[in-house]
Amino acid sequence: MYKRIEHYKLKELQKWYKKPTGQIIKRLINDEILRYRESYRGENTLFIGLSDFKLKFKSRTHRNFMLFDNLELSEYLEASKKLPFEDKSFDEIVLSHALDITEKPYDLIREVNRIATDSATITLIGFNKASLWGIIKPYMKKDMPWTLDFHSIYSINEWFKLLGYKSFYNESISFLPFVSTRFSKLISPLSFLQRIFFRNLGGIYFCSFKKEVVGLRPIKVKFTDKYNVSPFKKSTLNRIK
Fold this sequence. Notes:
Blueprint: H1 2-18, H2 20-37, E1 44-49, H3 54-57, E2 64-68, H4 73-79, E3 90-96, H5 98-101, H6 105-115, E4 116-127, H7 132-135, H8 153-162, E5 165-173, H9 181-187, H10 191-197, E6 204-211
Parallel strand pairs: 1-2, 1-3, 3-4
Antiparallel strand pairs: 4-6, 5-6
C-alpha cells in the first residue's frame, strides 16, 4: 500500500514542478544547489527521491553516481528493514523530497546513516513545516504540494544530531507560498532579507550534515610512584618442620 501512496505523491509532485509556480521554485532550488556545490562534492554519490535535480548534483569528479528508485522506499524498509546497499557505501547522499514522500521518514534516515561512510555528507531538500507553507497546510490538504508530509528544519536537525551528525549548511527559500513569475521578479532583489531575518522560515529547506567521528588516540600510562620488588628474607619465611 505504501508503494502506491508514494507513487501517487511522486507523480503529483512532478506535475506540480511543471506548473508556473513549481517552475519558479525549481529555479530557486537550482540556484541554491549551485551555491552549495561550491563548498562540497563527493566521489561516490547516491541520489534518492525526485530526480528533477539530479543533474545539478552530478559532477565529472564523481567516481560513482547512482539514482535510487524512490518508489520502493517503504517496500524495502517494511520487508528487509534495509536499503539494497552495503554498509558505508557512499560518501555523499542526497535526499530530494524523499522525506516528504516516504511514510517512514526516520526509518529512512537510519538506513541512510547505515550506508554512509564515516566522513559522509548528507543533503536534504524538502518542504519546511515551520513556515507560511506549513501554516496554511491544514487548509490546502487536497492541493499539491500540501498533500505531502512536511518536516521542520528543527526536527531534521534533531534527528541527525541523535545519529552523531553536525549541521554545516542550513538554508531555506521561498518565504511566500503563492508566487507568480511577475511577483518573483519584483521580490528577487529582496531575497537577501529572508537569509538575514527569516533564514529558517522559507517554504523549502536545504540542509546538509556531516558525520562526526571521534578519533581514538592511544594514551601512554605514566607511573609516578616507583615500586621496588625484593625477595623475602629467609628469617621471615614460614618454615615447615
